[in-house]
Design goal:
Strand order of the largest sheet: 2-3-4-5-1-6
CATH class: Alpha Beta
CATH superfamily: Kinase associated domain 1, KA1
CATH architecture: 2-Layer Sandwich
Strand content: 35-45%
Radius of gyration: 12 Å
Number of helices: 2
CATH topology: TATA-Binding Protein
Distance between the termini: 15 Å
Shape: globular
Oligomer: single chain
Low-confidence stretches: none
Order of helices and strands: EHEEEEHE
Number of domains: 1
Number of strands: 6
Length: 96
Amino acid sequence: MSADLFICPKEDAAPITVEQIRERFISAGLPCTIETHDEPWIAFADHESDLVFTIEADGRAGSAVMQASSDDDPAFGERVFSVFESFGWSYIEDTF
């Protein structure tokens, strides 16, 4: 079982690219890679959950959907959201 969780920048968040977000995850001990399908994705090593991003015209990340897998430990999700919080993004409850 999985869930889709919507994550977006708060009003005062500085612009950030998917590559910069990936670097933040790696710095936080969450190894990951960027994959490109129709949109850029961040795939985490040893986890089923991933992130799919929308990209704004200027190249910055506009929002993300975490395709969260119930096979991943809940502490993993907390770590992911903590990294997003560190640069001014937050999970929007009840969006899906």
